Amino acid sequence: MKQSASVLAHALFEGRLFYVAPGSCPSIMNFDREKRMTNKPAPTAVAIHDLIAGRWSPRAYSSKPVSREHLQSVLEAARWAPSSYNAQPWRFLVFDRSVDEVSFKQAFATLVPFNQGWNAPAPVLIAVTTHTLTNKGDVNRCAAYDAGAAAMSLVLQAHALGLAAHQMSGFDPNAFRTAFKLPSDVEVIAIISLGHYGDVEKLDPVLREREKSVRQRLPLADIAYGGGWKAAF
Ligand SMILES: Cc1cc2nc3c(=O)[nH]c(=O)nc-3n(C[C@H](O)[C@H](O)[C@H](O)COP(=O)(O)O)c2cc1C
Fold it and tell me: Residue with the nearest Cα to atom 5 of ligand 1?
């Protein structure tokens, strides 16, 4: 079978054959003119939409503020996420350094030291919280699922706008709860940093290598079963 050079390049990578859409860039990462890595396409086994394949979790931010228009756009994308009974249990707390540095610093202080390190220049943090109870006071077992769906919409919209977004569970939820006086039925699940891509070369060497490494996932056969637990799909 005749293979194009780009398919062959991926075939040789890690000894596995990855699908490369006709005309797509065979490179595993794209650098722009200012050495910013704006795209890190997943080496997918079959073709998926560019937006989903290209979204990734960068750690190199510039300190350039995010425009109000872009902030509204990513939040609007989250707003239109689906949810069980259309309950929309998610609530987002936006910390924009250029608007309110005091609350930004309070939120930043709840991040674990590792996350504080690479987020030092990040201009925006968005806390993803969810109402854990329904209007009737019952436990909403889909609350976290729905908030996760909204967060995914948010980061996909950020990627579509050319912004960098990185979700984090590495923060102290109790410290966050206290600092921002969360109601008892509200859980804070994640904090998303949002900003413009920065120069990868300014990251420390370990993170720089991780930034350039190929994105990894379990094989499809490990995550999709057909008709029964662990049955082959
Ligand atoms: C809920 C959640 C929590 C995460 N927490 C952190 C974190 O605290 N620090 C971090 O550097 N990355 C964090 N990540 C990023 C993951 O490490 C990343 O999504 C994963 O390695 C896959 O990489 P990709 O998003 O580039 O495909 C988190 C991601 C999610 C979805």
Answer: 168
* Domain that includes residue 17, residue range: 1-56
Best residue among 129, 168, 209, 215 to mutate for probing ligand 1, ranked by most atoms within 8 Å of CB: 168
- Confirm whether 49 is domain-assigned: yes
What is the C-alpha to C-alpha distance for residues 70 and 195, in angstroms, rounded to an integer?
A: 10
Residues 131 and 171 in one domain: yes
CB-based contacts of 104, cutoff 8 Å, min separation 6? 95, 96, 97, 125
Q: Do 3 and 91 fall within a single domain?
A: no
Q: Which residues line ligand 1 (CB under 6 A)?
A: 56-57, 115, 167-170, 190, 215
Q: pLDDT per residue over 90-107, tens digit each?
A: 999 999 999 999 999 999
What b/e string do you get for 149-176 counting C-beta neighbours within 10 Å, with b at 16 or more?
bbbbbbbbbbbebebbbbbbeebebeeb
* Token representation of residue 41: 């396409």
pLDDT tens, position by position, 21-60:
433 433 456 666 666 888 889 999 999 999 999 999 999 9
Clarify whether residues 136 and 24 are in a common domain.
no
In angstroms, rounded to a whole number, what is the distance separating the alpha carbons of residues 166 and 15? 29
**179 CA → ligand 1 middle, Å:** 24
The CATH code of the domain that includes 126 is 3.40.109.10
Pocket mutation for ligand 1, best pick of 37, 57, 211 (most atoms within 8 Å of C-beta): 57
CA–centroid distance, residue 4 to ligand 1 (Å)? 33
